[in-house]
Each structure stands twice: as structure tokens, then as C-alpha cells.
Design brief:
three-stranded mixed sheet; 119 residues; alpha+beta
């Protein structure tokens, strides 16, 4: 049975508070298990990368956005065996759209497809 109580709590708290249009959570703990600081840890949920797209971030700078997420996850960050490292990518839906358009342009894809009338 799959058990990820920290990841599940993170997902639930972010979803309820920020109502994200995009939420990607990557548990990178296995990549860091060999680090000296992790040798005493019994948790397999210590290192996360999280991508959040939410209107709640509108008109807020990155530090304020990150503080919002840290406040939501305070319990998971403070708990012994809890989150040791958290990498955040926070953006608004408009920022996400611009990023996708920029990536398409870099790959040589058209910015928008224009449908031609087949008359």
C-alpha cells in the first residue's frame, strides 16, 4: 500500500488554501538519503520540489509567495523527521501562459495556431 502522509498533507493544504490550477509535487528524498544529515532520519519524505500556479499569487513578489507556502506547511517543516528541504516554483496563471509560449517559441513552434477557413 502506498503511504505518503507528508506529501498527502502538502497536497491537501496547498489545494485547499491556494486552489491551484497547476500543482506538481516531486518527492526528491531518495536522492538525498545518503547525505549525512539524513542518516538519522526515519522519514522518506524530507525533500520536495513543488510547482504551484495560483491566482492567489497575483500581485505578490516571490518572497511573499514563498512565505505563504511556508506558513501553510509550518507543521510539516517544524516536525522532527518532517520536511528538511523545500524547493518552490510559484507563479500566476498569466506567468504560466507566458512561460509556455516562451518555451514553444524556443522550440520553433507557432505561438498560436490559426485555423483557416475551409470554404
Amino acid at each position: 500500500m502506498y503511504m505518503a502522509p507528508v506529501e498527502d498533507a502538502v497536497r491537501l493544504k496547498i489545494t485547499e488554501a491556494l486552489k491551484p490550477s497547476t500543482l506538481e509535487i516531486y518527492n526528491d528524498s531518495a536522492k538525498h538519503a545518503h547525505h549525512k544529515a539524513m542518516q538519522e532520519s526515519v522519514s522518506r519524505e524530507t525533500h520536495f520540489r513543488i510547482v504551484i500556479t495560483s491566482e492567489a499569487f497575483k500581485s505578490k513578489m516571490q518572497p511573499a509567495r514563498h512565505r505563504m507556502v511556508y506558513a501553510l506547511l509550518k507543521e510539516e517543516l517544524d516536525r522532527a523527521g518532517g520536511i528538511h528541504a523545500l524547493q518552490l516554483k510559484t507563479r500566476t496563471p498569466d506567468e504560466e501562459e507566458r512561460q509556455i509560449a516562451r518555451e514553444k517559441a524556443e522550440q520553433g513552434e507557432p505561438m498560436a495556431k490559426i485555423e483557416q477557413d475551409q470554404g
